[in-house]
Amino acid sequence: MKNHVYQNGRLIQTNKKFSALKQKQKEWITNELRQRYISAINHPHVKLNPKKRDQILDEVYDLIEGKEIWIPYGEVKRHYFSKIPSFIRKNKKMMQEEIKGES
């Protein structure tokens, strides 16, 4: 039990991976990150500055804790940073579809 601690009367796994979450939880976290990231982008093909990016991560992690999903902050951060290029591509694709729809 070296990777477990008691916290607020619950046994918590300290080395839990993002992949160990339930599919619904993973999708919810990814959707929250995507929606907030895309809404914060001013220019469609540009990454956010680190301060704004970290602010979004902190907001979503607070929501995760509010839903009582336990996952280490570092795991959520790693997943978030790996998904940023995907978020940008998805936003770019949506912008192109909007332009085609207006034409």
How does this structure look, described?
The chain contains 3 helices and 2 strands; from the N terminus they run E-E-H-H-H. 63% of the residues lie in helices and 8% in strands. It has one domain. It is mainly α and 103 residues long. A hairpin with a 2-residue loop joins strand 1 and strand 2. The model has no long low-confidence stretch (mean pLDDT 85). The protein starts with a strand and ends with a helix. A two-stranded antiparallel ribbon has the order 1-2.
Mean pLDDT: 85
User: What shape does the CA trace take?
Assistant: elongated
- How many domains is the backbone divided into? 1
Structural class of the secondary structure composition? mainly alpha
Question: Ranges with pLDDT <50 over ≥5 residues?
Answer: none
- As an assembly, this protein is single chain
The portion of residues forming beta strands comes to 5-15%
| Major β-sheet profile | 2 strands, antiparallel
What is the number of helices?
A: 3
- The counted number of beta strands is 2
Helix content: 55-70%
Terminal CA distance reads 61 Å
SSE order, as H and E?
A: EEHHH
